[in-house]
């Protein structure tokens, strides 16, 4: 880790840091989101029907997250555009109140892809919110964080006790 | 609140619900985000320099959040495009480890604007992450939620004890 | 119907025609697409498994079509941006070789919404193609056309014999 | 050709397949569209005037198609963003009722570019529709298909009898 | 004219000012751009050929400008999204060295549309640059300014001597 | 310099020229904009307050310019999408009436990046206009031009006397 802000120049103005001299490497990053939906909404996802509502809600959220990954450079002002080699998002029911989202992103570029993973996880969570908000608006995103990234100058793995 | 999912039809397929028959009203919504940055990063924002790093970091995050509000319909698949009359985002240092973000959005339309407020707050938080990530990647978004919305069929206000 | 091109001025230059003097009315339009997939791909959608591949393929295509409807003004150069009140897309297996797509769009504006319906149907078809192309690339979109539109100066309904 | 769907994982959820291990190669693809305009509209393009309407209509459609090629990753949810090295679109009057569109796209990447070619051809056709719709709405896109692609694991060429 | 900055709040942070209380009116604005191309490029536009290069260069620039008008809210951070009722862009050869561009935009909204007109004129000029840059890179945009706007609290017309 | 237009084919139709055979090189380009604001607006930026309005106005303009650089391929129809390795924008008060903007862009690609630099400079200028227009609408962009580019087939440097 550096001891300075990457996207601010000496005059305290924002800039998009020049990564021309960095070399290209295969990189990936995984972000995690945890979201409170409440028992009522979760029960709609567990009901023993042939087709529950879980299908369209989670699939819409996964698709939205994948598309958000590709648009990260357009949403976060200082993010470099990066080639996106793959995106894998899963959404699981964690307990009777919560879902958990994992978003893994793969690239081959000059700078890390953690913002893409975090952006994908957060948009998937917001899309679940949008699909369920007619039932309740007490939903809360409880956590969005980086689990790990590899392939850059230094890898990062959240320690077990921090998870 | 209804007892069903708004964007799913009878065959369990996603659809963008038809709001043609709803009337137009002035509406607003406010979302809240709380984010752990850690003492090291927060200290950079508090240092008694003429110009601290807080300026460019928070301003970039506010601008990114305002732009994200306007793009919510493009990011959340079932969101209706809505006229955006105004956006007001503030970011405050809450304590020596955390910042808090408020995002208020104003519209005049046929459906609520809560997704826009939540999206603006989450993108502001992610932008702070991006601007600070060279210092530490242990930052965590700890909470994103709706504080209140007014102007629709039913208003919503988070109760004090839930805040 | 007029006897002239709407988006070309007297000097033969493209222009976005000024609709300021037109009044706002509720409008809708429905477009239709028919696509050859072939027996092999269709058989994957009919197999008597608990979960067939039809679910994720058709849902991804429906979501892509809904989002495309909202972006029509950005893709078709002379299209006016219009408020989108609702979008309803269905995809059916028509026979052992073909699927059929219906895309209905609802607005309240000064100009017709047929381009949005046609754009949504075509992007849904292309998304099915993308999801199935590892199986075969002999897929062909056989037809994209307007079925009907209402709410403008003159309604339009495809006659039965033309369907 | 594979015997499976590329963008669906084992749990039947959509995913953007990881192409990290594939090698980069020069690739191109050409798509074809055929569209019924009818004698009246076609006659406007053939009239022996110094400047016919054909110019602005076809040029607007070509420009729209080129821009659509570049946006394919944003419109088709599972498409990888690819560098676009070149786009060549031509529109010809095929007979007194029809036009034909060819869209060729060139890239250098890890995955094929056929969706870009198909998307470009379809948006060019829709733009012609938009420019001519004040004259008639009986226009029909009669065919959109892939003519050939080269540079990937296996080339594809539509056989003559299928053309 | 006010004596303050519209998009900055009391704490000197950017905000998108709330126009909810303003009433909707028909508005238009016209912007002007003047660009030096030089004798060589201009001569290509004047040559007495049946089809000169002027056609595709100016038409591409007009189409790009029209599309830019529609995207102004996405490019200028504090701009409100506005309905666009019409756009009219003309490009003329002013003398043997220069072209002049006029961009007129029509809306019906709560706030002025001058940024849309200025944005359309500037993107048309940049597109001419892009189309001609293989011939010379000495082109210079010499002026972009607002000519007039009507329909708001106060009209604005550039005085003759200032033109 | 060539003696022809790069994006026009033999039939005078626009095309996006195929750069497949060109080799990749490190490239950069710098554009310059000069803008008349007038004494009143400039005085707001010079006032001896702890925090002047200059901060949020210039920072918003810099951020808008950086984001515009990344979107050049979407705004200028024939521009190839290019990887953006870095963007550096500075805005200075030139005299009591004017500001000057420099926009430098870095890439590693098959074609030049001058349009990105020119686009970034022009959007920064337009954003300053938007932030100040409540004070006066007599602002004028007086000049946008390329200062230099390196890394392509031939470098370009504006000669001193032309500056």
Automatic annotation (TrEMBL), chains A, B, C, D, E, F:
This is cyclic pyranopterin monophosphate synthase. It is an enzyme of class 4 (lyase). It holds the Pfam family MoaC. NCBIfam families: moaC (TIGR00581), PRK09364.1 (NF006870). The keyword Lyase applies. Keywords: Lyase, Molybdenum cofactor biosynthesis. Its EC number is 4.6.1.17. Residues 16-152 form the Molybdopterin cofactor biosynthesis C (MoaC) domain. It comes from Namhaeicola litoreus. Transmembrane segments: none annotated. Catalyzes the conversion of (8S)-3',8-cyclo-7,8-dihydroguanosine 5'-triphosphate to cyclic pyranopterin monophosphate (cPMP).
């Amino acid at each position: 880790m550096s001891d300075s802000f990457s996207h601010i120049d000496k005059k305290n103005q924002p800039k998009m840091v020049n990564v021309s001299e960095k070399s290209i490497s295969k990189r990936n990053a995984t972000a995690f989101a945890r979201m409170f939906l409440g028992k009522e909404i979760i029960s709609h996802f567990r009901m023993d029907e042939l087709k529950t509502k879980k299908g369209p809600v989670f699939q819409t959220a996964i698709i939205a997250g994948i598309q958000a990954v590709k648009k990260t450079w357009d949403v976060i002002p200082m993010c470099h555009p990066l080639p996106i080699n793959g995106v894998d998002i899963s959404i699981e029911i964690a307990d009777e109140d919560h879902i958990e989202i994992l978003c893994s992103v793969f690239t081959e570029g000059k700078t890390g892809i953690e913002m893409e993973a975090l952006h994908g996880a957060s948009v998937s969570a917001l899309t679940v919110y949008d699909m369920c908000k007619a039932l309740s608006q007490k939903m809360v995103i409880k956590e969005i964080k980086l689990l790990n990234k590899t392939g850059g100058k230094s890898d990062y793995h959240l320690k077990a006790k921090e998870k």
